[in-house]
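>> Question from a student workshop board

For tomorrow's exercise we were told to take the sequence and the ligand below, predict the bound structure, and bring the output to class. My setup keeps failing. Could a helper post the expected result so I can at least see what it should look like? The ligand is GMT.
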Amino acid sequence: MKIGIVCYPTFGGSGVLATELGIALSDKGYEVHFITYEQPVRLNQSFHPNLYFHEVKVPTYPLFDFPPYETALASTMAHVITNQKLDILHLHYAIPHASAAYFARQILRKTGQDIPFITTLHGTDITLVGRDATYAPVVAFSINESDAITAVSDNLREETLRSFNIEKEIHVIHNFVDVKRFHQSDKNHFKQMLAPEGERILAHVSNFRTVKRVPDVVNIFAEVKKSIPAKLLMIGDGPERQTVEELARSMGLYNDIRFLGKQEQISEILSIADLFILPSATESFGLSALEAMACGVPVISTNAGGLPEINIQGKTGFMSEVGNTSDMAANALKILSDDNTLHHFKKAALAQARRFEKQHIIPQYEQLYKDVVAGYKRS
Ligand code: GMT
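>> Workshop helper replied:
Here is what the output should look like for this input. Compare the format with yours to find the bug.
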């Protein structure tokens, strides 16, 4: 089967998930064609003979304040579907991928061609951006025009049904992790450099958007540090980074925090972490937390969105109300207080991550592709 995957190529979870899915499918013999404006970040880590990347180029013109990406994307999709003879399109993140796919399909139908498409909802395409009145009619329409819809958590499915009038079933296919790549490796030399006195290491990974509440990470760290020696690793970059660095400086914590920026070898960094902090205002799933768990790192998070579907209270970590940083700090100290407790949480985190291993999840997508393609041919 030839599958077209459309996603954001950046460090965001939806792009990461889409790329990991494409790689896993190509390993299983499917021919996978990525269609997006840049090579997806996780695609350049090794060569896969069944993987293709088609770059969407958006020519500019002095008249354009906003170069029309969606138009360029729909045209590129139409070209790739025709020339590569794709069987199905899989869109990750509804905006603008689902409406561009609808458009591409309408173009192809004029020439006697056709293709089904699946839309996977990831999070803010529903919870923040998608339900904004500016986008909502197009989002609802194009989701309903999809031949199948999936959501990455039960919570996101419910949110979608609450926010939009959806006429089709929404299949929940949880996100997955490749535990062969995300695992704890021996990076003790690295740990020695960052925490020479055996300090506990806390870590946070995100794209530093407001929704991630990154200042909360620094506030939690400040509380923890009052009781135990600790260091904090901040991985990623985005709009809030400067503000957060400034906050760290103003609190006198800058020397204990490393802002590492965007990193590709996240698993190596997580290997030395004792605790992962994710204080998001909303999180449909929390792929970064799952990847941390796969490296044996317990999680302190909020109880927002789909996080309770992966973080088990008192076992793999703890959850608190959004913004309750003192509760999150107190819970962090419970986990970090002694080696034995920490060891138990680490073991439980890893066991939980294994429930979301890719071999349990990929077959669900494969089955859906087969059902959709078969149903489409019949109708
Ligand atoms: O919806 C977003 O904020 C973007 C998206 C991304 O590309 O980073 O993140 C969402 O999708 C991830 C992968 O499915 C989930 O793990 C994240 O929880 C989700 N983010 C939010 O809901 C804020």
